[in-house]
Automatic annotation (TrEMBL):
Stored SUPFAM superfamilies: TPR-like
Gene Ontology CC, one term: nucleus
Residues in coiled coil: none
UniProt xrefs under Gene3D superfamilies: 1.25.40.1040
PROSITE patterns linked: TPR
Keyword terms: Nucleus, Repeat, TPR repeat
Ranges of biased composition (kind: Polar residues): 647-656
Record-given protein name: Cleavage stimulation factor subunit 77
The species this protein was found in: Noccaea caerulescens (Alpine penny-cress)
Main location: nucleus
GO terms (BP aspect): mRNA 3'-end processing
Length: 734
């Protein structure tokens, strides 16, 4: 399908065919248009190629194939050019044919937003008609007036220009009459102009050159689908408040244009038919469904919708043919079941029974057909014996289908036949493999909870565990009784004997039990050289150490602890104990190393940070702490850095006793630092001279911080940061 509707290849082929002779180009155009029958652009290109060689018969044939399905102005302008070329030199007969052609064209696309040039061309043509006597002149003026009045009521790109031309026309005929007519049509013109402005917004979102291809789910296709839906919704609202007939005609026009782009979208066809049905035009809806099945012949959805329409209006034979066409293409169980239901509605249960006996002989028949017909028989005939017999016959073929077992059990439950239900479960569980029996065991336990006693209920639960988890050592944890079993036994529908928090806790415990053995195997892997060879093949793959993973518990909140090491204290409260222990493993603590390399002001800032509850911290609190913290400014940081840089290293055994070239290099570095300091001071001054920030949120935070810092009596920090943000020169930093 993707290769068949290759847009890039189609566009390249359309460009290449322009340079071929018409004899070679014709089969290529036919190939293109067989794939894209609603592309007005390709039809126009095809017909212009025929017109260029004066092949009038072929041109007429092409127009008859495309005009009514491709409602686009450029193609119809090509049509009127051809008509005028043929009839312009045929005198009065030709003028009459041309007039009919204009009326025919405006009847179909006269409401298009781009139809302004066609209205103008028609008016110009009428003005050019000869008038041999006053009576003919009067008739011509009346014709012009009617065309003008239709044109100015149509929301097009040229509506304002047409209004001006109409005013000039009326004034040229009769000024006294013109005033009354202009006043009469002025409100109608204003309404058309307002609707044009609204309609233009929807039109601009549509790609009119989009080729119709089956849906691929691309963002462009979805955007176009949304644009057309919005446009249709706008037109259905009748924004111009015109009469029902004209509004209906306008909506049909938009649907037809939509199908030019969304030709392979079954939902658009269905909406179009449904709109016709709601409008009371069933015949039009039938025609839409027929066209839809030509466009998308494999759509079962449209066939069912069409059959539903035919059945609703009493056309049983037409509906039957549609169902049979579905069965002829795809003999699946769904089609058989739907046909069973249709026959029951149309011809009675006996006709459905005859078809059921034929359907179960088909190799494509599944257990769904047995369930559907047994349920139908039980509900309609009120005879459980026949339905029971059908289920038993199906059980011989579908004992290995858990869904069939469950449906059969539901049927027996409706009959309150607990004896046969228990026998059914025993037969089925003996035949089903363990990996497919989970749902049947669940249903069996629910049955025992309703019909059995406590002993039988516990016995079935234990049998279920042994069947699903086995009796081996790896299933020993699952075989043990747990509180989860109690919750399962004493819950009902959406009612639970515990809180949601307790249920989450039990679920986490169950997950931990299931993964307990995996963690043990991970930690018992061999180490050393002997283990290197066993993992050599996967040495390039790095796997995470899942043994260090901890189940996330959102209810736990870390508390601040006053400590001489604020970073380590905060980390020890924030991270679980096993993670902290892992991080601090070794001769030197990781947090001690961080403390040595972290400035004291930053350590104090980190100690004041709040506990983060959730994925992000409270921005207001963090900004407030930033503004209150005594972090060094640019110059203070440079001074402290310069002092540290000139001091001898404690780790250097030679200390400052070394001289010569090393001292010279230190002097050069100091000179470079001074130059860089000057550059940074210039940059700082440039930043401070900038105007106030326009961020309202930032200004609010500064005001809040100033108020807090004043109350906490920390004028130094507040002054330096306040002046820094406001752009003033700070005395405290100088």
């Amino acid at each position: 399908m993707a290769d068949k509707y290759n847009i890039e290849e189609a566009e390249a082929l359309a460009k290449r065919v322009l340079h071929l002779p018409i004899a070679q180009a014709t089969p290529i155009y036919e190939q293109l248009l067989s794939l894209y029958p609603t592309s007005a652009r390709y039809w126009k290109q095809y017909v212009e190629a025929q017109m260029a060689v004066n092949n009038d018969d072929a041109t007429k044939q092409i127009f008859s194939r495309c005009l009514l399905t491709c409602l686009q102005v450029p193609l119809w302008q090509c049509y009127i050019r051809f008509i005028r070329k043929v009839y312009d030199k045929k005198g009065a007969e030709g003028q009459e044919e041309t007039t009919k052609a204009f009326e025919f064209m405006l009847n179909y696309i006269g409401t298009d937003i781009a139809s302004g040039p066609i209205w103008t061309e028609y008016i110009t043509f009428l003005k050019s008609l000869p008038a041999h006597n006053p009576q003919e002149d009067s008739l011509r003026k009346n014709s012009l007036r009617k065309v003008y009045q239709r044109a100015i009521l149509t929301p097009t790109h040229h509506v304002e220009q047409l209004w001006k031309d109409y005013e000039n026309f009326e004034n040229s005929v009769n000024r006294q009459l013109a005033k009354g007519l202009v006043n009469e049509y002025q409100p109608k013109f204003n309404s058309a102009r307002a609707v044009y402005r609204e309609r233009k917004k929807y039109i601009e979102e549509i790609d009119w050159n989009m080729l119709a291809v089956p849906p691929t789910g691309s963002s462009k296709e979805e955007a176009q689908w949304i644009a057309w839906k919005k446009f249709l919704s706008f037109e259905k609202g009748n924004p111009q408040r015109i009469d029902t007939a004209l509004s209906t005609k306008r909506i049909i026009y938009v649907y037809e244009q939509c199908l030019m782009c969304l030709y392979h979208y079954p939902d658009v066809w269905y909406d179009y038919a449904e709109w016709h049905i709601k409008s009371g035009s069933t015949d039009a809806a039938i025609k839409v469904f027929q066209r839809a099945l030509k466009a998308i012949p494999d759509s079962e959805m449209l066939k069912y919708a069409y059959a539903e329409l035919e059945e609703s209006r009493g056309a049983i034979q037409s509906a039957k043919k549609l169902y049979e066409s579905i069965l002829g293409v795809s003999t699946n169980s769904l089609a058989q079941i739907q046909y069973l239901r249709f026959l029951r509605r149309a011809d009675g249960v006996e006709a459905a029974r005859k078809y059921f006996l034929d359907a179960i002989k088909s190799p494509s028949c599944t257990y769904h057909v047995y369930i559907a017909f047994a349920t139908m028989t039980f509900c309609l005939n009120k005879d459980p014996k026949v339905a029971h017999h059908i289920f038993e016959e199906g059980l011989k073929r579908y004992m290995s289908e858990p869904v069939y077992i469950l449906e059969y059990a539901d049927f027996l439950t409706r009959l309150n036949d607990d004896r046969n239900i228990r026998a059914l479960f025993e037969r089925a569980l003996n035949a089903l493999p363990a990996e497919e029996s989970a749902e049947v065991w669940k249903k069996f336990i629910q049955f025992e909870q309703t019909y059995g006693d406590l002993a039988s209920m516990l016995k079935v639960e234990q049998r279920r565990k042994e069947a699903l988890f086995g009796k081996a050592e790896e299933g020993s944890f699952a075989l043990e009784s747990s509180l989860q079993d109690v919750v399962s036994r004493y819950s009902y529908m959406d009612l639970w004997p515990c809180t949601s928090k307790e249920l989450d806790h039990l679920a986490r415990q169950e997950w931990l039990v299931k993964n307990m053995n995996k963690k043990v195997e991970k930690t018992n892997l061999p180490h050393g050289p002997a283990a290197t060879g066993s993992v050599a093949s996967s040495s390039k793959v790095v796997y995470p150490d899942t043994s260090q993973m901890v189940v996330y518990d959102p209810t736990k909140k870390s508390e601040f602890a006053s400590s001489s090491n604020p970073v380590a204290a905060s980390a020890s409260n924030t991270f679980p104990s096993n993670v902290t222990a892992t991080a601090t493993h070794g001769s030197t603590s990781t947090f001690d190393e961080i403390q040595k390399t972290t400035p004291p002001a930053l350590l104090a800032f980190l100690a004041n940070l709040p506990v983060v509850e959730g994925p992000t911290p409270n921005v207001d609190v963090v900004l407030s702490i930033c503004l209150q913290s005594d972090l060094p400014t640019g110059q203070a940081a440079k001074q402290s850095f310069a002092v540290k840089g000139n001091a001898p290293s404690q780790n250097d055994p030679s200390g400052s006793t070394r001289g010569g070239p090393q001292r010279l290099s230190r002097d050069r570095r100091a000179t470079k630092r001074k130059d860089s300091d000057r550059q940074e001071e210039n940059d700082t001054a440039t930043i401070q001279s900038q105007p106030l920030p326009t961020d309202v949120f930032r200004l609010r935070q500064m005001r809040k911080a100033r108020g807090i810092s004043t109350s906490s009596q920390t004028p130094t920090g507040s002054t330096s940061y306040g002046s820094g943000f406001s752009g003033e020169l700070s005395g405290s930093t100088g």
